Amino acid sequence: MNCGAIKQKLAAIGAEVSETEYARKGFALDARVAPEQLVAAVSALDAEGFFIEAVTGVDWLGEQAALRKEAEAKVAAEAKAAAAAATAAGEEPPPAASPAEPGELPEDALEAVYDFNHYETLCRVTIRTRVPRSKPEVPTITQIYPGANWHERETHDFFGINFVGHPYLVPLLLPEDADYHPLLKDFRP
Amino acid sequence: MSAFAESEAKETFILNLGPQHPATHGVLRVKLTMDGEYIVEAEPVLGYIHRMHEKMGENRTWAQFLPNTGRMDYLHALAYNHGYVSVVERAAGITVPERAEYLRVITSELNRVSSHLLWFGAFILDLGGFSPLLYAFDDREQILDLLESVTGSRLTYCYFRFGGVYNDIDDNFVPGTRAFIKRLRERMPMYHNLVTKNIILMKRLQEIGPISAEMCRKYGATGPVCRGSGINFDVRKHEPYSVYSEFDFEVPVYDQGDSMARYMVRMDEIEQSLRIVEQALDKLPEGPVMAEKVPKILKPAKGDYYHAVETARGSFGVRVVSDGSNTPYRLKLRSPTFSNLSLFGEACRGMLLPDALALMGSLDLVIPEIDR
Fold it and tell me: Looking at CA atoms only, how far is residue A12 from chain B in angstroms?
């Protein structure tokens, strides 16, 4: 087993795999998959003898707004630089481009993050999949790794990600009647 | 195997083990479906001491989270310190002076020995032998005294800082530690003669609670649990962090997968930790214990960072997501016993209740670390 082989396997499934700098990041492969490719990707890791470290989530609330703001700032800075260059060259500054009509923001995402490691070879693999916040549905991987059962329950507790097909998706760490998800960024106690 | 029920369950009843039960070592509840003395189904119920450390991490600065790390696994707090400071140092690009890394290793390994000693005493207590606990606490007390002189606390240590450790050792630490190593080496044969070779203990542990290597992999078991099932996996060797690559030590591995194997792994690890401490004391370099110019307000670059350390119970990993601000955007704590306990339901199916308690003890549970 080596890291390169599993990278090719994941890429064949359709994952967007990138090698990360291990010393700086602490993991070797970072793979983005669509939710429907998740089971295939995890099965490939299982066939290579990986063990499951953890499943968790990240709430990217506000990311789309921040990305747009960043893009707008970039456009504004470029226009300003062009105007300054034109003035310096003694030309009439070009008319400022009218700002593009701000369309509907794309929906922010919830990310499910799966960590895998190998007992013999040092190769930490991170698999991520993104789902819309309003309909966070990810297929379960408990049929492949029974150890994912508790990790998925915990992630459901904290983020409200619905692991479709999970045999027993009830609160694990939160009280049994909990109907809130504390790690969502818009959670108010 | 004689310990397994032979026929299908006909009439079952529910037995609650915990949340207040001496054998669960904390507030863990196990809902057992019993067929007479045999377990049909076991469902651990968690969350009684859940404090949401991960949310706490998101609303305080990077440094303010440090004391929390010592309050998860209170028996091996220094390893949790180590995991967290390492991941933040990796994210912020801080290099640590060599002397500080040596002190981290020495104190972490002493802490590991104290954790194993407490487990040893409490485990035999679970099985009905009272006196080993008193002997183990006597030895553990020496370590607590040593660590108290360096770290200032006896249990929930918060000794490491980003860029080093907060306090250098005093003049008594090195001779005191050497004296302790000598003392414990003299005591270990006594433990083996009194406890390991005891026929009652052997009957309670051998071939009881088998966990296969494949089961470890499917549930993500690490630490002495997987090493008792023949898997040679130790983060200190697998991805040597800190200065562990400079020491000569072995990873004890036993193939049997029963409770006895896990017992033996931990007993052997005590000696290996002592070896590491001894070598580290010999090679301890002079110099500062804190990196210069560590910014007061840390703002690590955007991105994901991961770092794992080997605690007394297995691989503890921290994943941080930084958005470039002075607080973590997301902090995931991967605790080893959470995964180790998750295989309990499958492993104890069909076992006698007292054998299942022996199996649970051999997993070395620390509940605040599972519930976080």
Answer: 24
Disruptive mutation site among B85, B339, B371 for chain A (greatest number of A CBs within 10 Å): B339
Neighbours of B248 (CB within 10 A): 8
Q: What is the CA radius of gyration of chain B?
A: 21
B243 touches chain A (CB under 8 A): no
Q: Which amino acid is at B17?
A: L
Please provide the distance, in angstroms rounded to a whole number, between the alpha carbons at the two ends of chain B: 37
H-only helix segments in chain A: 3-13, 22-25, 38-47, 63-88, 148-159
CB atoms inside a 10 Å sphere around CB B253: 19
- CA-closest candidate to residue B56, choices B68, B72, B48, B47: B68
Chain B, window 23-62: residues with a beta carbon less than 8 angstroms from a chain A beta carbon: 46-47, 50, 52, 54-55, 58
pLDDT in tens, B237-269: 888 888 898 899 999 999 988 999 999 999 999
Shortest distance between the Cα of B187 and any Cα of chain A, in A, equals 33
Spell out which residues of chain B touch residue A183, defining contact as CB-CB under 8 Å.
54-55, 58, 330
Nearest to A147 among B47, B218, B231 (CB): B218
CA nearest neighbour of B266 among B226, B320, B299: B226
Decide if A148 contacts A52 (C-beta within 8 A).
yes
Instruction: Identify any residues that bridge with B17 across adjacent strands, giving them in sequence order.
Output: B30
Count of C-beta atoms within a 10 Å radius of residue B60 = 15
Query: Considering the entire predicted model, what is its pTM?
Result: 0.88
User: How large is the ipTM?
Assistant: 0.86
The structure tokens 């560590």 sit at B294
pLDDT single digits (tens) A81-107: 888 888 887 777 666 655 566 677 788
Q: Report whether B118 contacts B75 (CB < 8 A).
A: yes
